Amino acid sequence: MDRRWYSAALPPKAIKILLTVMLFCMTGCVPRTEKDVVVYSALDEDFAFPILEAFERKVDYDINVVSKFDVESTKTVGLVNQLIAEENSPRCDLFWNNEIMHTVRLQKLGLLEPHDWPVPADWPSELIASDSTWCGFAARARVLLINTKLLASDDSMPSSVGELSDPKWKENCAMARPLFGTTATHWAVMREQLGREAALAELQAIADNAVILSGNKQVAQAVSSGRVAWGLTDTDDAMIEKDMGYPVEIVFPDQQPDQPGTLRIPNTLAILKNAPHPVAAGRLADYLMTPQTEDRLAMGRSHQMPISKESKFPPAVLPAEPVRWMRADFEAAAEDWDEWANDVAAIYSQK
């Protein structure tokens, strides 16, 4: 290869990034220098990559970000299993999860390092680890998506997650199988709200009453197509159908004083214990945990909801009136995760 052509075709920084990525792909490791930081991201690449790139380009020219994204439907589980497998020889510095429960699982396994998160004192207590090993930001909400052609009146629309088990809606409402993702997180939280046996009984009633689909996206599509009248999904999947012009409406459930409120599930950041590049990981974590990052995610197609009061971009998904958020104890919800997951799987594995 003509070295002069190679040098002219690519700027020095691009060459350095390319060589770092090649080394990561070929050997599964990176040089132990604070010039690099390795990020495993469960947030979709088209959302996360531009923000990570901005850190390199505009903020910190001295640090290269090497990103690993997983495109599988159970990507969070895959990345977490890899982090667990790498416990004795970590490759990842910073884990950017698009949900929270599996981050808490890593915390309980002792795989995360405490960090002084740059958030104000009034940050919601349920969105920061009791030992400071993770912090939550930029949330999605668990909402009801309603087909307004099938349910034209507000009086006829459901308003609570609990209505998934109401025989009134038999085979006309939908929920994702609660074995992965935000639906699994939701019901682990509900276990703490209702008690274990009551939560399992409710899950069995929903399995017998609702249409059970493979994921939140499929639930949103079933509602927008009119296959069912309504379903439980995430705000990002709901907004895709709404933005495409389908006759749907988003309802934030359980807003009455005697109800628990709407569950929000944040992105989370966590620095790995014994990370190869802890200083660089801390600098990147501080960059990401800002109102500016939350605003970028709010402006994107996922319409994620900022936690910071300094955010300047209210996402279109939020209603005009304030939302009552559920007070969720995510650390308690992650207790006995494997046993709980087995109990849920016994109900839903054949659905």
Which short descriptors sum up this protein?
351 residues, alpha/beta, D-Maltodextrin-Binding Protein, domain 2, ten-stranded mixed β-sheet
Question: How does the SSE layout of this entry go?
Answer:
Elements: H1 3-9, H2 12-27, E1 36-41, H3 45-59, E2 64-69, H4 75-85, E3 94-97, H5 101-108, E4 112-113, E5 135-147, E6 173-176, H6 181-194, H7 196-209, E7 211-213, H8 216-224, E8 230-234, H9 235-243, E9 248-251, E10 264-272, H10 278-288, H11 291-299, H12 330-333, H13 337-348
Parallel strand pairs: 1-2, 1-3, 6-7, 6-8
Antiparallel strand pairs: 3-10, 4-10, 5-8, 5-9, 5-10
Structure report:
It is built from 13 helices and ten strands. It has helices spanning 3-9, 12-27, 45-59, 75-85, 101-108, 181-194, 196-209, 216-224, 235-243, 278-288, 291-299, 330-333, 337-348, and strands at 36-41, 64-69, 94-97, 112-113, 135-147, 173-176, 211-213, 230-234, 248-251, 264-272. Strands 1, 2, 3, 4, 5, 6, 7, 8, 9 and 10 form a ten-stranded mixed beta sheet that branches. Helix 8 runs parallel beside helix 9 (235-243). The longest helix has 16 residues, at 12-27. It is globular and about 60 Å long. Pfam families: SBP_bac_6. InterPro entries: Ferric-bd (IPR026045).
